[in-house]
Amino acid sequence: YGKVQIVTGICVYMLLSLPRESRITRSICNLWALYYRAVQVRKTNRLYHFMKSNVPPGDDSPMILFRILSNFHCALEELMFPFPKGFHEDFVKLGFYCLPRNVFLQYLERQVFELTPSFVDQVMRDLGVSEEDTQFKNMLLVSLEEISCRFRLEI
């Protein structure tokens, strides 16, 4: 769902929940819904930055942060809260460096990870020219192409 759909949904829910004689207008409900959504955005961004900055240092820090972000991802999706700015880019990078490639590709196939052109570009530069690396690069490019097609169909 996009921001407009969520705000509209909240507004409609509030209007239907209020007694008819309350004289609360749609524009007032819309303002409440916009404010509610803005608070969600602010709080999820704050929590995200707090989590990222409070992972104890150590060799297993990336995996710990990946697990934390994985749980955070599930919670945000379930609650239909907005994802913090930069979340998807950080999450997919951590997944790439923490997970075995076959598991990473499963996350990608199930749309848990969102590929971005900058991430794919970085991976293309980081990986070598071995047969395994070349095959993985091709799979990423195909996934990025599928995402582009899906995005165009949604518009």
The largest pleated sheet is described as: none
Mean pLDDT: 87
Query: Which geometry do the CA atoms define?
Result: elongated
Helix count, per DSSP? Answer: 7
Radius of gyration from the alpha-carbon trace, in angstroms:
20 Å
Low-confidence stretches: none
Strand content: under 5%
Annotate the secondary structure layout:
Blueprint: H1 3-17, H2 26-53, H3 61-79, H4 87-98, H5 101-109, H6 117-126, H7 131-154
Helix pairs in contact: 1-2, 3-4, 5-7, 6-7
Put the structure in a nutshell:
The protein has helices at 3-17, 26-53, 61-79, 87-98, 101-109, 117-126, 131-154. The chain has 155 residues and is an all-alpha fold.
Structural features, described:
With 155 residues, the chain is mainly alpha-helical. 75% of the residues lie in helices and 0% in strands. The chain is built from seven helices and no strands. Helix 1 (3-17) crosses helix 2. The radius of gyration is 20 Å and the shape is elongated. The two termini are 13 Å apart.
List keywords for this structure.
7 helices; elongated; about 160 residues; about 75% helix; mainly alpha
